[in-house]
Amino acid sequence: MLDTSPAAAAQILADALPGHVARAYRAYRHGPGVAKVDMAVAEGVPWRHLPSRQAGTVHLGGTLAQVAAAEQEVWRGRMPRHPFILVGQQYLADPGRARGGVYPLYAYAHVPAGWPGDVTRLVTDEIERYAPGFRERVLASTSRSALDLQAANANYVGGDIIAGASTARQLVARPRLAANPYATGVPGAYLCSAATPPGAGAHGMCGYLAARAALKDLGERR
Length: 222
Known about the structure:
Layout: H1 6-13, H2 19-27, E1 33-42, E2 57-60, H3 64-75, E3 85-88, E4 102-111, H4 120-130, H5 134-137, E5 138-144, H6 146-152, H7 168-172, H8 205-221
Helix pairs in contact: 1-2
């Protein structure tokens, strides 16, 4: 069960992979990336929007039109002035992550694929827009660019953490057009990452459906 990008699967399976599958995997299209910042914040984030102080994740992007404009810039390979940012406040569900009034916070910004820049200042400024006084509460931070994320995990091609662009074609043919998109063409080897249907999300269905495909094949062989 390969929880990898199609390109990584092609590298792992090497010459055992049928030629047409290898070509499809290598032609698979990845989308924009993300750049991440981890912070230690005194007393948490002073969100102006009070319900956000109790939210495990907070999405920053402004209006729908502003989010769409920023995403278009990223797809065109340009870094927007106000990118879409996701902020994680997991300490709300797991208070044990906090110590002495210091809370761990992570945030990632949507950036062009392979963008090498540090987004610490940008992310800090954006959170400050919605939480005045936040900047003074940051005690420490560390960041990873889109390229840093790829270096740490080869499946994050260009910083793409959702295993592929959600284009019209790849919504219906992910990672390739096939009756069984989880099968690699190599007996006993299956792709189960978010590069398979139904795509990225916190649902686990890619692995579940890949496992069902594998069990079906095992039953037929028996």
